[in-house]
Structures are given as C-alpha cells and as structure tokens.
Design a protein that fits this description.
Chains A, B: InterPro entries: HTH_MarR-typ, Tscrpt_reg_MarR-type_CS, WH-like_DNA-bd_sf, WH_DNA-bd_sf. Chains A, B: This is MarR family transcriptional regulator. Chains A, B: Pfam families: MarR (PF01047). Two copies of one chain form a homodimer. By secondary structure, chain A is mainly α. Chain A contains six helices and two strands, in the order ααααββαα. The first copy, chain A, has a single domain, classed as Orthogonal Bundle (Arc Repressor Mutant, subunit A). The first copy, chain A, has a two-stranded antiparallel sheet with strand order 1-2. In chain A, helix 1 packs across helix 5 and helix 3 packs across helix 4. The longest helix of chain A has 21 residues. The radius of gyration of chain A is 18 Å and the shape is globular. The first copy, chain A, binds a DNA duplex (30 and 30 nucleotides) through helix 1, helix 2 and helix 4.
DNA sequence: AAAAAATAGTTGCTATAACAACTTTAATTA
DNA sequence: TAATTAAAGTTGTTATAGCAACTATTTTTT
C-alpha cells in the first residue's frame, strides 16, 4: 500500500517545525538575530563564559555549526570569543554590552512566542505532545 | 520568569524533527538520495510530468529550493527536465528508467520508516499529535 | 494590438545542519 | 619522558530553507 505524503508523520512534524521557525525568524529579524543564533544567546544570557563545546553539547548540534554561528555573533558585536587560560584549545564566549542589552528585548519576545504557540492548548495536551514526540525519537535511536 | 530552553515547545519539536530527519537520511544515503529529494521523487512516482511549480505548491516550499533540488536529481540521473510545449516558461519533470527503478527500493523503506516512528503509539495518539501540531501552526498563521 | 501584470524558473545571498579531514593543544599511556 | 590518544576548533563539502531581484514567457488590461 502506497502512502500519500501527508500520511507520513515525520513530514507533518517537519512542516510544523518550518512554520514555527519561520514565525520566530520574522520576530527576531528586526534585531539582526537568527533563531539558532538566539539559542546560543539564551545560553549566554543564562551564564556566559561557556566554551563552544559546552554550547554544542547542550544544543545537541555539531561543533562546526556552533563555530560558524558564534563567528557570526561576534561579527554582529553580540559576543566576544576569548582564548581560555586553563585550556588554550578552547574559546570562551562572553557577552558584549550590546549582547547583554539585547537580552532585555529578546527574552520577552521568545516568551510571548511560546505563549502564542501554546494558545488554546491545555497543560495536559502539551505534556501529551511532548510524550509522544519523545517516544518517536526513542523509536529511531 | 525566564524559561529554560526545554520549556519552549518549538525547540522540542525542532529537535524531534532533526532526529527523525537524521534517521531517514541515513536510510536513504545508500541510494544517493537526500530526504527532501525523496519527497520530490515520491510525487513523481505517483504521477510524473509535473512542473516545478506544482511540486513547490504541494511541498509548501520556495520555488528556488525546488529548482535546485531537481537540478541535483537530474545530475544524479533520476529525472529529466523537459520544456513544456504548452507553456515554454515551465519545465516538466519526467522519471528516467533509473528513477523509476529507484521507487521499488525506496517506497518500502519509507513505509518501514513510518511504521518505526509510530511504533508503540495508538491511532488515537497519532491523531492527537496531528491535531495539536495543527493547532500550533494555526496559532502562528 | 500595445502596455501592464502575472507566472515559471534562475541566480545570488544568508542561515541552518552534519560529515570528513585537518591543526593545535592537552591528557594518557608505555 | 616520549609516544599515543583525545579533545577543541576550523575548513571544505553537501543538503535544506527562504528572501530579493532578475529573465523569459504568458495572460490580462486598456
């Protein structure tokens, strides 16, 4: 039996991800910040001085991507990369004043975004969707 | 109140998408076919002779992406692009013998993949997750 | 029929994502 | 201690994703 595209749950999830990402991208664009760059900034607003490797482990992303994203964040003037004294291989990431200031604008936006996404959904439904998506991830581990 | 990264449902959905896509990518790699290229092939296995614009409308993707993907599919020898006689602006996509043959290998793999993703989940849960994700998409329209 | 608007596709740009191969430095082992 | 192994980051390549601006056609207006 041949399935049509919409029968594939992974395609449905992918489309959902694209919709949500596209929206958050438009919200962040005025601040010259891309969605994944924002995730790195969020980790630094929480605690700065982390190195690239820590970032890549937390975000479950390849270190090459993180390296390129932090280069861009540095070009934009939001962070500075400083060679660690303890381990000369590693680069610590520090917020610039501009980067610190950005947080006060962005954090409310991301919170509002999350509220909007969850609008009309109950806690129970949100837990349910997390549980089911987790199960799907486990299935392909 | 500051949320931690995992509290953002969109980030959770994004990670799920990456996990699933990564798995299907590894399954398709031996056939020299990438996941999104496969979606185009699936549409052509269903009915070939479609033009690029039809593909981009069905897949809800930018026409530039489709153009580049079909160029790659043509380079790989799976399809041929033929200028339409009715409308000289448009390119119709036709399967090559190699492209037709590929379908018999790939379609079972994608069906198995969908079964694996859904393993241990009930019809009710799958409908529920689709309903909730649809609601989230609506929220950001 | 001529002018304007719409459509199909392309090129250039930026961003995300992961893999392989590489350099430099640190930690481990022999 | 010297040799090996591991770790942190970088560079190159391929694929996906969307925006702006462009060419070449076709359709619609005037």
């Amino acid at each position: 039996m041949k399935l049509s595209l919409n029968d594939y749950i992974s395609i449905f999830i992918h489309q959902t991800d694209l919709s949500l990402t596209s929206y958050v991208k438009s919200q962040l664009a005025p601040f010259n910040l891309a969605p994944e760059q924002n995730l790195i900034m969020m980790l630094l607003w929480e605690k700065d001085g982390r190195n690239q490797n820590e970032i890549s482990e937390i975000l479950l992303k390849d270190k090459t991507n993180i390296a390129r994203m932090v280069v861009n964040l540095e070009k934009k003037g939001f962070i500075k990369r400083v060679s660690s004294e303890k381990d000369r291989r590693s680069l610590q990431l520090f917020l610039t004043p501009k980067g610190k200031e950005l947080g006060s604008s962005i954090i409310p936006i991301t919170n509002d975004f999350n509220k909007l996404v969850c609008k009309g959904l109950t806690e129970k439904e949100l837990n349910e969707v997390r549980r089911i998506l987790s199960k799907m991830c486990e299935n392909v581990q």
